[in-house]
Design a protein that fits this description.
alpha/beta, Rossmann fold, 7-stranded mixed beta sheet, 7 strands, globular, binds S-adenosylmethionine
Length: 198
Amino acid sequence: MKLNWAERWAVNNPLRAVQLRVEIRWMKEKMGLRPGGVILEVGCGRGTGAALILREFQPAVLHAMDLDIHMIKKAKDYLPPEQRTRISLYVADVLKLPYRDEVLDAVFGFGVLHHVPDWQGSLSEISRVLKIGGFFCLEEIYPSLYQNFLTKRILLHPKEKRFFSQDLKGALRESKLSLEEFREIESLGIFGFAVKEG
Ligand SMILES: C[S@@+](CC[C@H](N)C(=O)[O-])C[C@H]1O[C@@H](n2cnc3c(N)ncnc32)[C@H](O)[C@@H]1O
């Protein structure tokens, strides 16, 4: 589901860039992902995360995609030319990724799953394209944050089949994604990474 004006404002601002920088540096420290891999960012928005992934992880190939063509256009404007030419940006749905099975070293998704009605389907699709031993790095928030009495009036999200901490962890396990390291406030949200099991 595409963002409305309020959430576009919330993610397209400098504070969000600071938050992503802290999370991506934490992931780099814990994960041990070697440079030279093939990485995908799903739901890349205006490209803040992709720029940081490029700098911190030095992949050979970086793809970044979003459902919303306006976000991809924003990313093309936001990224400086030297980064823009090293990231392949495209429009697609995380439920149908244009890759063969087990070809990616890492998939990143910041604040994306809670926008997808079939979020479990997204997890199995991400797992399908990851190599065994590949990383899925995620950051998600729970309904108490985006569907409380105030935010449900301002923000736009799918209403059915929402997930909390235990739902997300169970679905990761079902998709053969083993949660290795994470930071979480159980009522609010989580960031961390999982490894694709054999
Ligand atoms: C909360 S924003 C996060 C953007 C960016 N990752 C960030 O952290 O700043 C969620 C993004 O996911 C995208 N999105 C929502 N549903 C999607 C889907 N099914 N497939 C791919 N992207 C999707 C939205 O268009 C939006 O850009």
